[in-house]
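User: Can you write out an input/output pair for a complex, sequences first and structure second?

Assistant: Here is one pair. Inputs:
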Amino acid sequence: MFSIERPEDWWEVEALYDLCFAPGREALSSYRLRDGVAPVRDLCLVARDDTAAVGGAIRYWPVRVGKAGVLLLGPVAVHPTRQGEGLGALLIQESLERAADLGHARIMLVGDAPYYRRFGFRRLDGVVMPPPTNPERVLGLALRKNAWAGVKGQVQRASDLAQ
Ligand SMILES: CC(C)(COP(=O)(O)OP(=O)(O)OC[C@H]1O[C@@H](n2cnc3c(N)ncnc32)[C@H](O)[C@@H]1OP(=O)(O)O)[C@@H](O)C(=O)NCCC(=O)NCCS
């Protein structure tokens, strides 16, 4: 059902994100953390239905908080004709399991706590996204025990030197 996103899937997934998010999504501060950085290939998943159309997709990028490596979940989106069937949950759960299997310790995202709470995401105190970001929407999940303990500060691009 899911396959790792291939280079030839890129524009189809971009079209899905354009459809699902408000215009100007790339102006969001989370995109500044992705600029010029390659996504985490093994965790970028595409769900295709029987007609081979893309029903949903999820991507991850590496970021840094202080000296700690963190995975930034997103964007994740499900085609409007497929929403509410559990596909979003499946994409998130499958990618979280793969991330744990690959040895990643911690994940963060900017999103709606009422949706992401079910996967174990909680508000991250002291982890600061580039402005403008509502701190209530900065959420994290530990894939290893206490993985967020002591991890605080500005979220930075993975390729920027830790300051
Ligand atoms: C958010 C999204 C990925 C969820 O995918 P999905 O396949 O529709 O979700 P699921 O079927 O797994 O879950 C549906 C449940 O989540 C709830 N839900 C969906 N979006 C929600 C939100 N923003 N806040 C709270 N609950 C939400 C639905 O009400 C539904 O609740 P129920 O199980 O009680 O009926 C999808 O709706 C989407 O693409 N939305 C537009 C893009 C977007 O907002 N992406 C997330 C960015 S933070």
